[in-house]
Specification:
- The chain is an alpha/beta fold.
- The chain has 15 helices and 17 strands.
- Strand 5, helix 5 and strand 6 form a beta-alpha-beta unit.
- Helix 3 packs parallel to helix 11, helix 11 packs across helix 14 and helix 14 runs antiparallel to helix 15.
- The protein is globular, with a radius of gyration of 22 Å.
- It binds D-serine.
- The site of D-serine has 4 residues, from loops.
């Protein structure tokens, strides 16, 4: 690999050159982000306060165990911060129990799977083309549930017209499986393409017949749930709500579990010592700050995100894009899904947009498999507006972005021309909104060396 701009092979770098190259790449990345349209639905920009926490000495310490029961000295302030995170999390999600130690959403999911199942148990989840996360997936595709926890994963029958789980067909499938001696032990809800609330209550009613548990993976929509604009999974019947803390909830990259007191002791033991040793204490501090921001600002932020997503969906649709689910107002979340097969495939469109400083990701569509397409070159792209909204963009910017994307993809305007428009648009949106303090610019590169 050649280092961009240096024309030097990575293999030929000595230690000093490598050190300088690393720091240069970091700064360049920040510069790129300042003038891009970041629309990858699983990302966000944390506040300067969260970034301060991430750079703190918490990140160099150990605090194995639960608050107040650590196996290391020097944890007084770490305990204070983790206790605050837990209490804020309980308030934010109306929960009895919160564990902020899982270091990612996948670890939080694996903890939930471990709490409620044994290897070989039958579980249900959405397939990847219908939005399911890879951690919910079968052994044959290497998913955490199938390949790591060794669960027998079945996919929900899916209503493609409404982009949701088909509850009636699921019920029929379970009854048929039951008659051959297979009973479900767990239902995984939530997804990575998560346009509309899942039928938590209906699936929880089915689950009761089998004493099966409900795991709701709310990683994508956690900020919307915090803002009160998306379904409240625990109230609707989930046993555990797992999340990552950096998508619509704009904290650091980390995980958390939100649940009921009755599961607390078993979850605590699974998370430590089962699935973590140390739990990345700088990230826990960042999560605590993100929870505080969410309590104070997310009622407005979540509303603005969903309004922007619907506006962008409508504007792209009116300009000729095949934005899916116009029959349902495109989305009730932060993201929209577009079939771009008329312009090549999702990979080609992702790359063309990247040349224009527009960052989206290719995505499988529910019907891609039937069309002979796979994840490398699927038929769709997924677009999230949570980061643009945090930068302060609103309806008029969504319409401007739809115009820019039309020029890039439908009119095939040269990328250089589009990139200039993107840079111009981004100039006025350099601060993080919906947070307590934003003196530094959103993507400012802060040197402490
Ligand atoms: N794979 C991530 C996403 O982009 O949705 C979630 O972990």
């Amino acid at each position: 690999m050649i280092i961009l701009g240096l024309n030097m092979s990575i293999k030929s770098l000595n230690a000093r050159e490598a050190y300088e190259a690393i720091l240069r790449s970091l700064e360049k990345h920040h510069e790129m982000m300042r003038f891009s349209l970041p629309m990858i639905a699983s990302e966000n920009i944390p506040s300067p306060a969260v970034r301060e926490a991430l750079a703190s000495d918490f990140g160099n310490r150990y605090a194995e165990g639960w608050v107040g029961e650590r196996l290391y000295a020097g944890c007084q302030y770490i305990d204070e911060v983790e206790s605050i995170a837990i209490e804020l999390g309980k308030k934010l999600f109306h929960a009895e129990f919160v564990d902020v130690r899982p270091i990612s959403g996948v670890v939080a999911n694996l903890a939930a799977f471990t709490a409620f199942t044994k290897p070989g148990d039958v579980v249900f989840s959405c397939s990847v083309p219908t939005g399911g996360h890879i951690s919910h997936a079968k052994k044959t595709i290497g998913g955490t549930a199938g390949a790591i926890r060794e669960l027998d994963v079945y996919n929900y029958p899916f209503d493609e017209k409404n982009f949701n789980i088909d509850v009636d067909k699921t019920e029929a499938m379970i009854k048929e499986m039951d008659s051959s001696g297979k009973k479900p032990k767990m239902f995984i809800l939530g997804a990575s393409v998560f346009l509309f609330p899942h039928p938590v209550k209906e699936i929880a009613d089915l689950a009761k017949n089998y004493d099966a548990k409900i795991v709701y993976d709310g990683a994508h929509v956690a900020g919307l749930i915090a803002g009160g604009i998306f379904q409240d999974p625990l109230v609707e019947g989930a046993d555990i709500f797992t999340l990552s803390t950096h998508k619509t909830l704009a904290g650091p990259q980390h995980g958390a579990i939100v649940s009921w007191s009755k599961y607390a002791e078993s979850i605590k033991r699974i998370v430590f010592p089962g699935l973590t040793s140390n739990h990345h204490l700088h990230a826990v501090a960042g999560v605590a700050i993100a929870f505080a921001e969410a309590l104070e600002f997310y009622k407005d932020y979540a509303k603005a995100i969903v309004t922007n997503a619907k506006t962008l969906g409508q504007a792209l649709y009116e300009r000729g894009f095949n934005v899916l689910y116009d029959n349902r107002g495109f989305t009730e979340s932060h993201m929209i899904l577009i079939d771009v097969s008329a312009y090549g495939n999702g990979f080609e469109v992702e790359k063309k947009l990247e040349e224009c400083n527009i960052l989206v990701n290719r995505n499988l569509l529910p019907y891609d498999k039937r069309m002979g397409r796979d994840y490398r070159a699927p038929g769709g792209i997924r677009i999230g507006v949570q980061e643009l909204t945090r930068l302060g963009m609103g309806k008029s910017e969504m319409i401007e972005i739809a115009d820019i994307m039309k020029k890039a993809i439908i009119d095939r305007t040269p990328s250089k021309e589009i990139k200039e428009k993107v840079i111009e648009l981004r100039k006025s949106f350099q601060k993080v909104n919906y947070c307590f303090s934003s003196i530094n610019d959103a993507y400012e590169y802060i040197k402490i060396r």
